[in-house]
Automatic annotation (TrEMBL):
Superkingdom of the source species: Bacteria
InterPro entries in the cross-refs: DUF1040 (IPR009383), YihD_sf (IPR038134)
The protein, known as: Protein yihD
Species, as recorded: Chania multitudinisentens RB-25
Gene3D superfamilies, per the entry: Protein of unknown function DUF1040
Pfam families: DUF1040
């Protein structure tokens, strides 16, 4: 994991973990994994799952994932033409 990912995870984790001070770190990570729908072993939980879950936690299920929103196109035809290079930004 790169340093900026560690910093981002800590910044996201700190305020929500403070809301549940009775849980130790492993218990809290287990809770986040369950909330995210992660079925595997805790050792296989990726930082991406934690980061995106923490970013999206408490938002509507229909809200777009951060990072993907910049590539979103409402119209399929526009998206196709942009991907083929016909429409330039």
């Amino acid at each position: 994991m790169k340093t900026h990912r560690v910093n981002e995870l800590i910044e996201l984790l700190h305020p929500v973990w403070q809301q549940e001070p009775d849980l130790n770190l492993i218990q809290f990570l287990q809770k986040l994994a369950q909330e995210a729908g992660f079925q595997g072993e805790l050792v296989d939980l990726s930082d991406d799952i934690l980061i995106y879950h923490l970013k999206m936690r408490g938002s509507a299920g229909t809200e777009q994932i951060p990072g993907l929103k910049k590539d979103y196109e409402e119209d399929f035809k526009t998206a196709l033409l942009r991907a083929r290079g016909v429409i330039k930004d």
